[in-house]
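Work Package 3 (structural annotation) set out to generate three-dimensional models for the target panel prioritized at the project kickoff. During this period the team completed the workflow that converts sequence records into discrete structure tokens, so that structures can be stored uniformly alongside our sequence database. As a representative example, we reproduce one entry of 251 residues exactly as it appears in the project archive.
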Amino acid sequence: MSYDLKRSHFSIILERKVATGSTITEEGTLLVATLDASTGEEVVDLCAASSGKVVAGWAIRDNADNSTTSVVEKATIPSTGTLEVQLSNNNLVTSSAGAASSMRVFRDVLETAITLVNDGVPSTGQVAVNSDTGLLTFHDDESGLAITITYRYNLTVAESRLLFFQRNINNEAGALFGQVGVGHGHGEVFTDQFDATVDWSAAGTAVHTAASGTVSSSGGTVIDARVISVPNVNNPLLGLAFNFGGAPIGG
């Protein structure tokens, strides 16, 4: 699942119609609400990196046609030879067209991040990312360092079916009726739909809507949520306590 069913909980779960022309395929994505101009009825859609939106809740589906997911890996940069680290996955999600991948590379001992650049020859303090192959190339100054890599990658259909559950009976009921489950009210969610470039461990990190139903730390609409669990090797999901439509949950 795109969110952890065992640890996530929502005080309210309701079905909502999906906005005309939109498709919601992944669970754990953040949804916003608008009123349909023709019917006057509330409909939902994936959030985006835009301000002034009304947050509806988290997507809950009958099945999961996941196209992306998040991973956290530990590695040690070689001390000699070509300073390369091969990630376990390829076809990485990019931040924007032609930009370096949606990734954060963190020096464990120095507790600082390494700057991402597109595939090529990195300069001091940089790592060159090949988004197609998942190969990272480091500058000589980084030799021998232990690092943590948080990143998102695009799933093949086979990988999606292998990693995420799809029930056999009525698994397209929501799509048939143009609806999606929405988890809202107050609760906690552990989701893989987050901006992997963000340092979510930083104190007081605000949570904002971002592109394609994800969350980030800036831009978009600020939501009433706080970080309660940072993605790591054993649990690559972002944990958030949230309150949508009720009293503030505090800091």
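Residues 68-154 form one domain.
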